[in-house]
Amino acid sequence: MIIIIILLIIVLIFVSYLLYLSLKKINQYEEFILQISKIIEFATEKMKQVDASGHYESDDETGFFFEQMKQIQNILNDLFETPGDEIDAEKEKK
After folding, report:
1. Could you give the CA distance from residue 31 to residue 91 in angstroms, rounded to a whole number?
2. How far apart are CA 31 and CA 12, in angstroms?
């Protein structure tokens, strides 16, 4: 009986350690994706400043680039929930 309890404790410690490592890795990936999101958001804002008149964005070749940057930013924005999203959702319910 004691052997079984000792084995269960060892397995529990091992699984807990694996869980800790997994969560640590997930947090690293999340930070990496958030950094990419910030870079794309910054690039989009700078592109809009350069193209204040809208001539480049309406052009076929550069307009394609603008549209792709917007799509990437929207995908990254939908990837993670932000605290502001929860507040907005509560306001919509009311």
Report:
1. 28
2. 29
List Cα–Cα distances, 18 to 6, 22, 24, 31, in angstroms.
19, 6, 10, 20
pTM over 0.70: no
Q: What's the pLDDT tens digit per position in 41-86?
A: 888 787 778 777 766 667 777 778 778 877 887 887 787 666 666 5
What residue spans of 1-94 are helical by DSSP H? 2-50, 55-58, 60-79, 83-93
Which residue, among 31, 29, 35, 37, has the nearest Cα to 69 in the 3D structure? Answer: 37
For residue 27 the two structure tokens come to 């947090």
